[in-house]
Amino acid sequence: MCAKCCNLTAGETERGKWHKVELMNEADARRTGLIVLTGFRATGKTAVGRLLAQLCGYEFADTDAMLIKRMGCSIAEAIAQQGWQYFREQERLLLVELASWRNTVIATGGGAILHQQEWELLRKQAFVIWLRTELASTLARLRQDENTAGQRPALPCQASGQGLEAETAALLAEREPLYQAGSDVVVETAERTAGEVAEAVCSRIGLKQFNKN
Ligand SMILES: Nc1ncnc2c1ncn2[C@@H]1O[C@H](COP(=O)(O)OP(=O)(O)O)[C@@H](O)[C@H]1O
Ligand SMILES: O=C(O)C1=C[C@@H](OP(=O)(O)O)[C@@H](O)[C@H](O)C1
Ligand SMILES: [Mg+2]
């Protein structure tokens, strides 16, 4: 059985690390009506989520985009003006709302997993995919993404003030156990395009691809 104790059995799958969906029970199959993407900053939740929704004919929702609209400013501005506690409270309330949505792919922000109580509520309704990217690729993506400045202000952590690499390593070490425990399956994203990751998610959880070229 899978090390994550889900209902998946190891299969002869890509790169030898993947699982093959077998014997998905009724409750798990029902949860695939709401797909939640989790993972650290810049793992591709937003990019993959949009493509995944197109592939499987679902709506797409991005929690950060929704919060930016609701707060009326960028995440960096919200943090500068009101602090992380304010942002986290808006995020927490949104997660509760989203738990009742169906036929939707939801890209969450990397810190949404910190809301453990609301996350458990969401998990009862949704199938959760952890997009995992190792440190070097995460740093490269963070540095090249033009949205980083407005969307990813520095997070408080043990290595605060020691530079992006040390801070990212510390945050990954803190967060990875939460993503692991809070997801149904993990999909590695390194050396795959966002489109390839979306296709891999689809086949991994047995979602029909409606819009495959
Ligand atoms: N599989 C991938 N390979 C390379 N770059 C990617 C991949 N997925 C996303 N990116 C790029 O990384 C950056 C962060 O992606 P994004 O979807 O915003 O991540 P997240 O929502 O997890 O923070 C963007 O510039 C995006 O184009
Ligand atoms: O890791 C985090 O705590 C955060 C990740 C960001 O989203 P992405 O994961 O989409 O970058 C955004 O929600 C905010 O800056 C907080
Ligand atoms: Mg995002």
Describe this entry's structure for a reader.
This protein is α/β, with parallel strands linked by helices and 213 residues long. It has a single domain, classed as Rossmann fold, CATH 3.40.50. The chain contains 10 helices and 7 strands. α3 (63-71) crosses α5 and α4 packs across α5. The longest helix is centred in the C-terminal third of the chain and has 18 residues, at 164-181. The protein starts with 8 loop residues before the first strand and ends in a 9-residue tail after the last helix. It binds adenosine-5'-diphosphate, shikimate-3-phosphate and magnesium ion. Residues 45-46, 64, 107 line the site of magnesium ion (MG).
Number of helices: 10
Report Rg: 17 Å
- How far apart are the first and last residues' alpha carbons, in Å? 34 Å
Count of domain modules:
1
**Major sheet description:** 5 strands, parallel
Q: Name the poorly predicted regions.
A: 1-22
Mass-distribution shape: globular
**Would you identify the CATH architecture?**
3-Layer(aba) Sandwich
Secondary-structure-based class equals alpha/beta
Strand order in the sheet with the most strands? 4-5-3-6-7
Attached small molecules: adenosine-5'-diphosphate, shikimate-3-phosphate, magnesium ion
Average pLDDT confidence is 89
Number of strands: 7
What name does CATH use for the topology?
Answer: Rossmann fold
Subunit structure: Monomer.
Binding site for ATP: 42-47, 152, 192
Binding site for substrate: 64, 88, 110, 175
Cofactor: Mg(2+)
